[in-house]
Amino acid sequence: MPSLRLLKVLLAIGTIVTVLHLLLSPNLPRGYQAGVPPESPRYVYHHYTTANHYPNAADGAGQTPNATANHAPIEAALALPPLASTPGPVKACFVILVRNRELFALRASIRQLEDRFNHKYHYPYVFLNDEPFTDEFMRYITRFTSGNATFGVVPTEHWSYPPWIDQQKAIIARIKMGNVIYGSSESYRHMCRFNSGFFYHHPLLAEYEYYWRVEPGVDFTCDIDYDPFVYMKQRDLTYGFTISMKEIAETVPTLWETTRQFMRARPGLVDPKRNTLGWVTDQSLETYNLCHFWSNFEIARLDFFRSEKYQAYFDYLDRAGGFFYERWGDAPVHSLAAAMFLPREKIHWFDDIGYVHQKIENCPMDSDVNYGKCTCNPMSNFYLLMPSCTREFKALDADASLDISGLLKS
Ligand SMILES: Nc1nc2c(ncn2[C@@H]2O[C@H](COP(=O)(O)OP(=O)(O)OP(=O)(O)O)[C@@H](O)[C@H]2O)c(=O)[nH]1
Ligand SMILES: [Mg+2]
Questions:
Q1: How far is Cα 29 from Cα 25, in angstroms, rounded to an integer?
Q2: DSSP code of 164?
Q3: Which of 3, 128, 196, 356 is at a distance of 20 to 30 A from 102, taking alpha carbons?
Q4: Ligand 1 — pocket residues by CB below 6 A?
Q5: How confident is the model at residue 161 (pLDDT cuts 50, 70, 90)?
Q6: What digits encode the pLDDT tens for the residues 261-297?
Q7: Phi-psi map region of 123: left, alpha, beta (phi>0 left; psi -120 to 50 alpha)
Q8: Which GO terms describe its cellular component (predicted)?
Q9: Which of 298, 326, 345, 361 is catalytic?
């Protein structure tokens, strides 16, 4: 029967393509590649207990985790400086901007964060809101937080229109952007502007060196049995992320041109040898490729944002008005700042932290991590999909630093 023969041919072609894909793909999780027999559960169980994979992890904040195993090749290639042996306690907190009505979504996320990580470390929480938190909110949240919790209100001047913004023009922009996600939202714009240029100035964050941003509704899908703050401090890292992707172009039509103008206006601020601009643009610096770190998860140094250059960049953007006339997100703003001001070795992909935000997830693909600690499917990792920019980030080397002198001449 011809249709049966055709089916058999198609099946044979499908099998050959699948086998070739499995053999050639460098991105499949270890232990899932053809030719690598999956480790037997017994083997994984006995050899990768928490205790011997991260020997000091249970010791608490300020101790030295040995969480280097699956990062060693990247770090060796980047010739990072030797680890600081005793980083000392890290002044760090979770920072959560949230509305009262998001109580239960946040409670679920906090419970997971505690179960997966913080019940051993007890880092404090800073909750921020553009209006006062209700008693109910604070009572329900503190039932689950193992570290100190403080609740603050955002100052009005950090959540309102600066005097140079034409509010009529802002309304028209919102109407025109009705077909873009959050394009018509006024509060979303205040939120993005606050997260771009003000959160790190909040007095409740003054005492901290690092923060970890958390949002209501996110999931943590793996045990984190080392301390990411210590990990960052030991390696002198500035910015950590889990997911990267392309921004919606309609939200940032002039963000890159404004950023180029900023680089022209303040030529001394971008070091041609110590930037990551190669990740967000091409050699000619002509266009933004829309890559950005997804800022709903961030572990970062606060002094990066408090620095003169970051503040100069934010002020420049704020004057240009794109937070209101377009819909500039804090994610591309943070990312373009990181690209201008940070070399590759200061930025870290926490590939071992299982994290889900709005169904998009980072799921560890290293079977040593995934098998015993995670409840996510490594094949669902956003890293494997086209809109992720993490593959390109991983491939960055010293050439990622772009010399901006050509830009300054044009
Ligand atoms: N207090 C307060 N927090 C807000 C407001 N809008 C957003 N947020 C918080 O800011 C963060 C980002 O807002 P989200 O609505 O999650 O924005 P997003 O992550 O881009 O989009 P989705 O998660 O897909 O809705 C979350 O922690 C929100 O709780 C607001 O008007 N007031
Ligand atoms: Mg969100």
A1: 10
A2: T
A3: 196
A4: 97-99, 102, 129-130, 187-188, 191, 215-216, 296, 358
A5: very high
A6: 999 999 899 999 999 999 999 888 999 999 999 999 9
A7: beta
A8: Golgi apparatus; membrane
A9: 298
Cα 83 to ligand 1 centre (Å): 36
The average pLDDT across 222-248 equals 97
Cα–ligand 1 centroid distance for 188 (angstroms): 7
Determine contact, residues 302/208, Cβ cutoff 8 Å: yes
Ligand 2 is an ion; residues with CB less than 5 A from it: 215, 296
- Beta carbons of 207 and 167 less than 8 angstroms apart: no
- Amino acid identity, position 24: L
Q: Does domain 92-409 have CATH number 1.10.3720.10?
A: no
Average the pLDDT over 155-164 and give the result: 98
Q: How far is CA 353 from CA 56, 117, 118, 349, 389, in A?
A: 18, 10, 13, 9, 17
Compute the distance between CA of residue 277 and CA of residue 344 in angstroms, rounded to an integer.
Answer: 10
Residue 222 DSSP one-character state = B
Is 298 among the catalytic positions? yes
Query: What global pTM score does this model have?
Result: 0.82
Q: Starting from the edge strand earliest in sequence, which strands make up the sheet with 347-349, in order?
A: 149-153, 125-129, 92-97, 210-213, 298-301, 239-241, 347-349
Do the Cβ atoms of 210 and 91 come closer than 8 Å? yes
**pLDDT tens for each residue of 8-56:** 666 566 556 544 443 444 343 333 333 333 333 222 212 212 222 222 3
Q: Is the dihedral of CA 276, 278, 281, 286 positive or negative?
A: positive
